[in-house]
Structures are given as C-alpha cells and as structure tokens.
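Quick look at the format.
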Amino acid sequence: MKTDELREKYLSFFETKGHTRRPSDVLVPTWDPSVLFTPAGMNQFKDHFLGRVKLDFTRATTCQKCLRTGDIDNVGRTAYHHTFFEMLGNFSFGDYFKEEAIHWAWEFLTDKKWLALNPDQLSVTVYKDDDEAANIWHEKIGLPFSRIERLDEDENFWPASAPSEGPDGVCGPCSEIYFTPKDGKKVEIWNLVFTQFNRVGDPPNNLEPLPSKNIDTGMGLERTAATLQGVTTNYHIDILRPIVEAAGEICGVKYDPDSDNGRRLRRITDHIRACTMAVHENVYPGANKEKYVIRRLLRRAVLDGHQMGMHHAFAYQLVDKIVEMMKAPYPDLQDSVTRVKSVIKSEEENFLHSLDDGIARSEKIFAGMRSASRTVVSGDEAAELYQTFGFPPELFEQVAIEHGFTFDWAGYKDAMVAFGERSGGEQVKLFETGPIESLKNSVRSTEFIGYETDSTEVEVRGIVVGAEGDEESKLVDDFDKIGPEHELIVVINKTPFYGESGGQIGDTGRIYSSDFEFVVTDTQKDSDLFLHVGYLAKGKISTEATATAEVDTNRRAAIKRAHSATHILHHALQKTLGSHAQQQGSKVEDDLLRFDFTNMEPIALDQLTVIESDVNEKVTDGGLVKWETVPLVKARELGAMMLFGEKYPDPVRMVTMGDFSRELCGGTHLTDTKQVGAFEVISEESVSAGVRRIIALTGEKAKEYRVKVDQTLSEMASTLGCSVNDVPEAVKHITGYVRDLKKAVNGSGKAPDAPTAVATSSKADVDYFHRKEMLKESARQLNSPLFESAERVKTLFAEIEKLKHQLTEREKSGTLTGDDLLAKSSTVGDVSVVVAEVPGANANLMRQLIDQIRKSTSSSAVMLFAAADEGKVTIVAGLSKTLTDKGLKAGDWVKEPAALVGGSGGGRPDMAQAGGKDAAQIPSAMEKAEELAKSLFA
C-alpha cells in the first residue's frame, strides 16, 4: 500500500466512525509558548481535551506534520528515527473511551477492507495496572495473554513516569500496538493514550479520575507504511526512497544502505525534508529558537555532503524531489519551490565558507587529543572554535564522533553561558495551570463584538490580581486598591476591545460603572478568552458587576489606519519585488507599523520609492474596504492571500480592499483606503537572513513626519544660503570643500579654493515626495540621520572655520616636510634625534612626518609637538625599527614630556601619542625630550 493511500484510508476510516477530519496544524505554532515545533497530533486540541473551548465536534482525526529533535543523533542510523514525520491520530473529547478506541484500532489494522494485517503478527502492551485495557484486548478482541505485555509507567504511561515523577495535570495509561514481520523485529506502529486522570501531588493516591475521559492516539505514518510495504526501514518506503536515491545522484554516490555514505544520504534526506517543510512555512535558518533548529539541521546535512566530497552547495537541489513526493497531501508546497531552494542555497553557501576552516582546526584538536591520550573534546575548545570561527558545536560533536571521541556538553555550556535554545522535542508545560486557566474552565470564552461597536454593556466574570504568568497571581471576588502599581486582569462576558493577535496590538480604554472605573492599558488573548489588563482608577470592582466597556476610539482609529496600510504595503511589495515577498510578521500600533517580509536582498532605493508611491496612490485614489466571513475553501477560490505556516479557522474572515487586495485577517480595519490619510516609509532594514523589515507611519504621524521633512530642508537651505531645490547640490559642494580642507591640513598645507555659490534654481518647486528624496540624498552625503541633517550642516560650517585656523597656523611654520625636520636633528650615538614643534599640525600629519623621517634614515627618534585652541597639546613620538629591536619603546620616551604639559599617553613601541592641556609648557617639554634622548639612545 502506497503511503498516500495509507494516509487517506486512515482518515476516511475514522470519518466513518463519526470523526471530523481536521487539517494538520502548522509546524511552528507561534501561539503556543510550550513548544517550538508541533511534536504530536494532540497539540492543536489541548484546549479541546480540557473543555476550555466550545466543542463543535467531540471526535476528530488528523494527519499531523511533526518535528522533533530529541533523538537527532539516531536519524539515519536506525530504521525508524526522523526529525520531520507525519502522525496519524484519532481523538475523543469526553466522547468514546477505551473499548471503542481499541476495537477501531484493531478493525483498521486487520479488516480486509482497510489494512488487512495478519492478526497473528500483532501484539500489544498495556500499563501494568490497567486491567480494563488488558481485559478488552483479551476478552473483546481475543488476543491471548501471551501477546499482551504489562509494562511500567516509564513505558506505558503518558507523560512517561507521570504517576511518580510528574508533572501534575492531565495524564493516563497507554496501550501500544506492535507488528512483528516474519523473520523480523517487532515494530511499534500505534499508541493509544487513555487520558483519564489528573495528577495532583506525590504518590500514593495522587491520580484523581477526570470527570471527562479522552482518547489521544498516534500512528506513525512512515513506520506503518514500512510495515505494509515490507521494507526494513522507513527510508525505503515509496515517498522516501526516491529522495534518498536523488540525494545519492546529486552527491555522486551510489546508495548502499549498509555503508557510512548510506547513513549520510538517509540523514540528508530527513534533514532537508524537514528544512523544506519549515522554510515553506516561512521558518528560515537563523540564530534563535526554531530558526536555530532549522539552521542546525541544514548544516548537519551540508556536513554529511562535505564528507562525501561535496564542497559546493548541493542540498537545495533536493527540494524538487521532496516536493514531488509530498505534493499529494500538501499541494501548496509547489507554490514555494523557488523561494525554498533560494533560502536553502544561500544558507548552504554562507556555511561552506567557514566549514573547511572549522574542520581543519578540529582535526588539529583531535591530533593533540591523540597525543595526550584524551578521549573527550573539552568544552573550552568547542567554545573557542564556535566563538572565533563560527563552527557550530553540534557539528563539532558530529565530527568528533566520527573520530571516536566524545563531547563535553556541560563544559561547553559553562564556556558559552548564553548559548543553547530548546529543541523542537522539548516542552515547557504541556498543560498550564493558574488563575487564567481556571477562568478558561469556567468562563470558557469572551464574545468579541469590536467589529460592530466601540462600547457596550458588560458583566465582570473574573478578576485576577497580578500579571499573567506571575506565580503569585490569584483570582479574587473584588478589589479596591487604586493606582497603576496594582495591576489587574479583568475578564468580561463580551468585549469591544481587540485582544493583541495577528500583529495588531491590543486596545486600550476603560470599563466603568457608578461604582468603579477600571483603566484598560492593554488587551491580550488566551485562546478564546480576552484579558483586559490595567488598574483601578477609582471605586471597587467586583465579579458579576455590570458596567460599560469603552474603547479609546482615537487610538483604535490610528491602529486601523496602520493595519489597513499593511495590507496595501503587502500588495505593493509583491507587485514590485515578486510573489516571494510574503509577510513574515508584523506589528501594528497607532499610526505606526512594522512589516517583515521575505526577500534575500536589501530593497534598492528606486524600488523602495516605487513601493511607497504605490501605497500612497492607493490611499489617494481610495478603495472600499470590506470584510466577510466565508468558508476557507471559498476564500481560496476567490484568490485570498494565505500565508504559508499560518493557522486559519474555518470559516475565515476575509478582508478585501478595492480590487487589488484580498487577505485573511481577524484585525480591525478602515472602511476606505483614503482614511489611511498618508503613508511614510521611515526605514528598510534586515531582520535576519532572507527577511527584511519596513517601518512606516500612517495618518497623523505620517503628516507630522512630512512637516518635519519640509522644516529640515528649509533650515538647511537657510544655512546654506540657497533655495530648497538646490540643497543637495549645495551639500555636495560644502562636503567636498571640507574634504579638501582636511587633505590640506593633513598634507600640503595649501588651502583649497572656496566652493562657488550654488546658482539659484529657476525650476519650479517640486512636490513633497521629490523633496523627501532630496533630503534623503543630502543626509546620505552628510552621513547623518535624516532629521539631524540641518544641525550637521551647521557643524560643517564650524568645522570649516576650525580647519582654516589650523591651516593659518601651519603657514606660520612654512612648508613642512620630513627632510626639513631631519635637517634640524641632533645626533645621539648613531641615532638622529628630532624634537620639534609643528604649529597647526594634527596627529595624522605628525605621524606622516615621522614616517617620512624613518624612511630617510635607518636609525631615528622623533618627537613632535603641536598646540591647538584653548591650550590643548598633541605629542606624537616615533622610533625606527633599529631602536625597537633593542627593546626601546616610544611610550617610555613620551611619558615625562607629556606630564610637563599636563597630560599622558601611550601606544605601540614604534609609535606613541600623548595629549596635554598646557601649551605654555611646550618649550620645557621639548627640553625634557632632548635630555631623555641622550640617556635612552646613547
């Protein structure tokens, strides 16, 4: 049976048993802080199991995309381990229990209509105390006790060892089903979890029966396919073997399952399949959390290829075959092939630059270990290789294992205190506890009516003292402490307040009655519960009190402007850059938006101008904004933009703007694009590899920005003495003049010609967008932030005067060259000693003069003094190589003269610099330098 056929048969079977087929959750559930990646099919149903949401169905079945890295070192080595895999599951939320779950599992496995496995080749395990499950298998199914094995809690309880070791919370025994092929080793293919207890405290008697019992099962798709197809490893099933073979062709290696290269090809297959699925969902390789896991997997695959002689990017070529094998269940993979290949190739190329060097350095470490008879790579060595050369510790460990060494992870972590992120296989707390969770159980959900109104009559359903997640937070019936220092969370039966989600920040406002006023400073969401965060401004708030909930409408309007603008911007980005420029994240505040999107390169200035103009054109022209709730399939048919990796409800809210934008979005929006008012891009920057960020303003903040642009340009024009239209040209002249003055001060001493005045332009005043480009160009020439450009021009005029003064001082001493100074030198032994004052010289010129002297004579010691404004003194001393070779240091020579002018300094043996603040003492300092030279250099 083909793998795609098995997947469909499983889901169809449970549909015949009254289960609702649900789509796979995404690989990275960003709304679930307990995991980095989805590790099991039950994750998307956590609140269903706990009865914290309205149950639209009590039975469900899924095929879930999963990613775990807990057993990463076994990938490719064993027959069944993967990082990315698919888990078939059927779930009951307080509906059926053990007998049905066991009967249906047996029916699906053995009935000729379904899998038709030989019943004699099946055996099961049960928890040691679960007589109920054991009796069902024996009495109802007919399995002999010889094929029913009882195991302890570490094997047949979920979570493992929960009764004795915890954690507290929902748990239960499980029953595993094994298949034993003829002349083969038995394989676990299905795990039935019976969640029937709530663990509270330590044993004994710590398992309290749940009022509502649940079923959570999982069948490994790849393992079961291997069983049905009669192959000894998952990697030889119909959807994986072709990828392994393709990897061999790309690497120029024939696939031999029993060889080291065979193991490498299997690992490449697994890791690049995982990376393809993740990057498709916009999870790019990076430095933190889930992004680091993807980077780690990709680099392990690249290292395997490298060890087979692949010294250029290759893994990205495997994406086409992976998509071909996975397109039946996940057809949208075909829409992102080009982008996924580009991201993987870029990451490969970046890593390959440092890989050869890292391996070479690790080989030196291994050679030293062999000489010292060491077997453990020290954490310090690994940390240095990572910090200095960027060689990842996981790959260092992998190379070490290839050489028969072990790796000191504890020592490494001590050396790299900040290093380390949770892998996808770890979970913080599967089921949270606390006052918010209690409210979920009692209130369950808050009705959101914020699309229709900004104010409504409500009833207070819950009050939590302390911030969400605070261990000391607690539910109270009433509260009367006034002031922002006493943070509360208030839950009401219905709300006009938007809870932060989808990048849009939460609303603010107030909840009030004749008895109290509660100031809402933020609104958050936890599942379907809206949490109003804030403080009591007056009175006493109590549960069951009736009140008015009122949103800050001015702030809400500003948020709407920014949110609607992100949709327009998204359209403009794709129009200019291409369809790959998909949203990676956003933050929508009051008249301020941050929009992250996929793009491998910075946006060219002319492209950014086009994008900004395109958005403003849509704002100026206007376009009706409307939203409707439609079935997900209809939204797809209508061409609504759907972000890869985003989880959408069904039905879904679709927001349409004019005839150019249709997106799925739960946020609040304007009714016409004209209401955005104005749109201003203030920056475009990199967030991470392949992800760029635009920050922009809308509405009032954009208008204030425009006023500031014109004010800055006008101020610059006034200082430069030119028209606004001529500011960039005038800036070009003045910055060029400053460069010429600096060259003169540092070199010839000859003053350049003053810049010619910019002729007043006769062209008509340009529009705002051209004026903004003029300001940007001027700021670029000035190397200044946009709105600091006017002040920078003023400082340039001050700098010009200072440079002119330095040139005037230079003229007093005439033309200075190294030869001129050397002609005035004295001789101490065979050393030419130059001690001189060089009026108007800066440190750079003084160093140039010293270098000239050192080139002219083989043995020299030079100390130059220069006085500046306000009595400041600069001293530079230099010694030739013949003197430094004798152990002499310029810093030792300069110390005492520097002290005489009220300063100190230091530097390299051949060149030292000092500063002082008493120019009147320069003659005494020079005399001291001459005196010291006689003793130092004789």
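Next, a different chain entirely:
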Amino acid sequence: MTNKNVGDSPADSIVFEDLFRQQGEAMRAMFAPLVPGAEAVTTDPADLQHWAMSAAKLQKMWLDFSAEQAGQVEPMLARLGDIGKWTQTFMAMAGQLPIAQAETQAKLWNESMALWSSVMGQFVSAGTGNVAPPALPRQDRRFKDKRWQEQPAFALIHQTYLFLSEKLQQMADEAQGLSPERKEQLRFATKVVTDALSPANFPLTNPVVIERTMETKGENLVKGVEHLLDDLRKGQLTHTDPDAFELGRNIAVTPGKVVHETPLFQLIQYTPTTDEVFETPLLIFPPWINRFYILDLNPQKSFIRWAVAQGLTVFVVSWKSADASMAEVVWDDYVRSQIEAIDHVRERLKVPAVHTIGYCVAGTTLAATLAVLARRGEAEKVASATFFTAQVDFEDAGELKNFIDDGQLKMLQSLSTDGYLDGRYMAATFNALRGTDLIWNYVVNNYLLGEDYPAFDLLHWNGDTTNLPSRWHQAYLCDLYRDNRLVIPDAMVVDNTPVDLRRIATPCYIQAGREDHIAPPNSVWKLTRHLSGQWKFVLAGSGHIAGVVNPPESGKYQYWLNPNDAVSLEEFVAGATETKGSWWPDWIEWIGKQAPDLVAAKGKRIPGSKGDRVIEDAPGRYVRSR
C-alpha cells in the first residue's frame, strides 16, 4: 500500500487552490469598499492570486508563532507596554467621571451632532462646487495626511475621536473624590487609553493603511506582521534598523581607552586632541538605566568629543548592565563607585580635584555623593558639579510617579528574576510616557504600513536597554520617588554616612529641559533650594535628551539664563534672557572660570601612551553586556 499525503491528487490541489482563492477574495473584499472606486475595478486572476498569497502568509505566520509560543508564560506583552493595566486603572476609576450622567450624555450628544453637521456640511458644500478644503475644527498630527480630510467618512471618524478624547480628558481633569495621586493616575490612564483607541491604530479605520493594503494587495500587512512577531519574540518594540549601528564603528567612536575596571563599572579616558588641556579633568557619570553613549552617538552629536576638543581631559563611567552577580547591589554601591572613580582619576593624573557631571539618576546620586564627601570633610575632591536633568526633590517628579504605587511596585518585584529587572520593562515604561510618539507611531508605520525601519542613532540607543539591580531599583523608587527622603536632612544614610544636601558647597551648574517629561524642569529647579554654595541654573529648549545633546554646530533650540536670585522657576523664567542655540558654550565658559589652569597634554593625559597600562579600547566591554 502506498502512503499518500493530502494535496497529492489533482482533486486536492483544486481544493487548496479554491481555498486560497477564497481567502484572497475575502481579504480584498474587506478592504475594497473602504477605498472609493475600488469596487468598480475588475480584479484579474493574477491579482486574486496575489491577495491569496498574502492571506496564506498571514495565516501561516500566526499558526507558526502560536505553535512556537505554546506553553511559554514569559510576559512578553508586559515588556512591550502594559496597555491593559492602564485600561483596568481607567475602568476602575471611570465611576468618578460624569459620563454616565444623563445630563452629560445629553450634552455630549448635542455637541456631537453639531460637530457632525459642521463636518458633513462642508463636504456637501464641496459637492456643489465649493472647492475649498474642509476646515476641520480639531487638528492632530496623527491625522495630518490629506486622506483623513478628503473623505467624509474618515474626516468624521477622526474628528469624533478627537472630540471624545478631549471630553474624556476634561472629565478626568475635573474628577471629584480622588486623592491628588489617584487623580493624576486617572489623567494618565485616560490619555493612555484614548491614545490606544485612535482610529489611526486600526487597519480598517485608517485610510492610509487601507490604500497601502489595496496597492500592495496585502503585502504591507504581511511585512507588518513579520515585524510584530519579531518584536513579540524579543519582548521589545523596535524603533530603528537593528543592523544599522555598531558600537565602535559608527556610534561611540570617540578614541579612548578603558583605564580602570570594577565589577560595577569601567572607566574610560578619552584621547586629547589639543596640545594643552585644563589641569582639572572632567569625570562624567551617565545614568545606569541607559548606555553611556548617549553622550557619544556620533562625531556630530557627541558631547564627549566636543568636550575633548575644548581642552578637557574627559573620563566617562560605563556602568555594567545588571546580572545575577549584582543581586545585592544597592544605591550605596553606586555612591561608592562614584567616589572610587573620583579618587582613581585624581590619583592617575596627580590632581587634587575633578569636575563632575551627573546625568539624570546619576545626577541624583552625584548629589548624594557630594553630601557624603562634605560630611567626611573631603568636599575639595570635586572642583565643580554639573547636573543634567537631575532631580533630588521628587515632590513634582511628573508622570513617572504614576508608576510607583504599591500595585506597580509589587508587579515590578514579581517581574524581577535572579536579583535584577530586565531593562525591557523600564523601556516599556518610558515608551508609555510618550505613547503617541514611541508606541503608536511605530505600530502604524511598522505593523500596519509595513515600512522599513529607519537608521536613527538616537532610537538605536533608546532600544539598547540595560538591566537594573532589583534591590537598588525598589529602594530608589520607594525612598526617593514615593517618600522623597533625600531632601530631608539625615533621613537617608549612604555608606554609613548621613546625607544632608545642605552641606554641598561645591559650585554647581544645573541644566533642565523646558519640555522634559521625565525630569520636569520645576522638579530639577528644586535642587537649587538645597545647596549652600554657588550655583548657576540654565533652562534649555526641548526635553530630556535633545535638551542635553544639542551641539553648537546644529544651531537648534535655545536656552534661558537669569542672573538674578530667583526663588522659583516661574520667577526665573519671567526674568530670563533667551539665547538661540546650544548652552554648551556657556557651560565650558563657566568650567573655565572654576579652574582655568592649563597643562601639557602628555604622559597619562594620553591614555595608552608609553608606560601606561590600559585594559582595552573604548567603548569597552561593559557597554556591550546584556
């Protein structure tokens, strides 16, 4: 007896061909009515076969993925961004909104009817010879494509969505009976949910996606699903071409050497490009929740390269991404590491002090480090401290505070394995803060339109996640974000030393981003209220990244300075003078005034020179650790 596989006979082939034909016709029929004139086009057999192949590919990919993932319990979607969690939050507090009240519903209905009449009336006028484009009452860049405005159905869909989103947000703002914290969570949850429900995010309500699907006969959806499944497998949203950048080749390329190493960090020293350098070197502490090369993306954007060119001997700490060996690491270890790096640079170059920079969380830690050194009588080890978008007072810490209630903290604890938290969860959190830009924009472009990923160095860095020690992360969120203990004198003890920020007399340069959603400028400003020494505050245009990484050559943005002794950010802004371009030149002028002496760039000022033992070339191994 001969074994025979299904599909071997001519009859079987006819069955499968007919099945594929039906799938293709069904897929085409789903999209065609949504494109004016498409139903009138006679579809030839070749087109139907093309549609059928797209449908078959989509079906096979999902079946293969389902079989591949069967039995796996890893919470991939949580890493991509837990929209469901915020939906639950919204639903739990929706009773505080007046939307169920008859009066509110009647008002919404009347306003909706007025909106629809206004929108449709313009299309009726256009049909009678009025060629002026419709003047839609609400504008949003998600719907800037002309196809959202040229077709009445899609104009009505997106205008109704914007109207309802606006009303829901107003209701959240005016909700009664909630604590300030819960009210802020309701506002945030409302924004997350309404952003997710945008008609732009769904293939049958997005005219751009519909038209692309008809043009490619479904190939865009095939490519988009390939992108989606790849992201589900790796548990992280992809923003940029993963093969476009390589550390040491086209990002993080400023020449230098790793000159010191501990289990927690590598210390990189960069090669001078000037014959003379400032005697006092610069030591940069980047945040360990990201890779250090945000300050060395490429030669045009690199703060590190620019600082070297100004005559500074630049050192940068490259933190190790957490693994099981770092399960017991706490904040004290990062403070001790900062002190160790300061001492190592001083000893290496035989100098009494260093300039320091602390970026974001490393700036918060630098403030604690300065307070510890001051308490120990060692403040003179630091000639100056610069803070990039760093907070010490977390009373007004912005939307991140929505992620530190007891439920969120418990969830993060449950997600930690082997003593560390996978960095992809933190990446999802930061993406959620800018959902329209960092989540849904890519859902539309990558998953629905099937577009190729761009080659964008900043987005590559944004997706290059680092793991966090669980003990440190939990304590940081509780002690600082939730309980705001750092600004209470001696409420925190670091490395057996009580922390009192009022002891900091080191000259400080404090930079904040005017549009920063991670470290709001008012929160950063509050550092000035806790220092006993001289300080200078600069408010830079843009946000948490572009407000910092803004080289003079780019000619972008602006900054504000106020020489008067302002007591609040509002007062600072009211009396500030705006200067176009980058604030970096103002900073280097300030640095030069703190320690103007110059020395020859020789000996250990040139890492790896004769007699100088180094570990490896920059950017080192730790920046590549997973």
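The first strand starts at residue 256 and ends at 261.

See the schema section for token definitions.
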